Amino acid sequence: MQFFIVVNNYFHDFATGLLITSAVAILVMARSVERQGHDDAIRYFVDIYPKLTLLARFSMAWIITAGAIRLYFFMGFEWADAFGTDQVPALIVKHLMMFTVVGTGVYFWRRLSKKVKNLRAQVYPEA
């Protein structure tokens, strides 16, 4: 059972990194498109955006699912180590930071979705 908990925890952390990475990638591309402004760059961005959004949504779903499993086993599996090494305050700060990062990311992602919709209409007027 411990093996599965460790693997779950690893993939929970991996999904968190994947969520942050996909958000940074889409942000970098969005800024690049704004600077370049030509139709080919906009078209590429508009086409890749749904794929990165799907990746981010999958990551978020995995974070929630694996996080629930992690929370269920936390007291029996991680708490003693965290408590014994005085890591509890660090864990609290880490999770508060991550909730803030994810919440802020969702806010900006929603704003960006509106921009992408307008860009899509610009390069694919018939759609």
Observed structural traits:
mainly alpha, 4 helices, 0% strand, 127 residues
Detailed description of the structure:
The protein contains four helices and no strands. Helix 1 packs antiparallel against helix 2 and helix 2 runs antiparallel to helix 4. Helix content is 91%, strand content 0%. It has 127 residues and is mainly alpha-helical.
Q: Return residue spans where pLDDT drops below 50 for at least 5 consecutive residues.
A: none
| Rg, alpha carbons | 19 Å
Mean pLDDT: 86
SSE order: HHHH
Give me a quick take on this structure.
This protein is mainly alpha-helical. It has helices at 2-36, 39-77, 79-84, 88-123. It is elongated.
Layout of secondary structure:
Layout: H1 2-36, H2 39-77, H3 79-84, H4 88-123
Helix pairs in contact: 1-2, 2-4
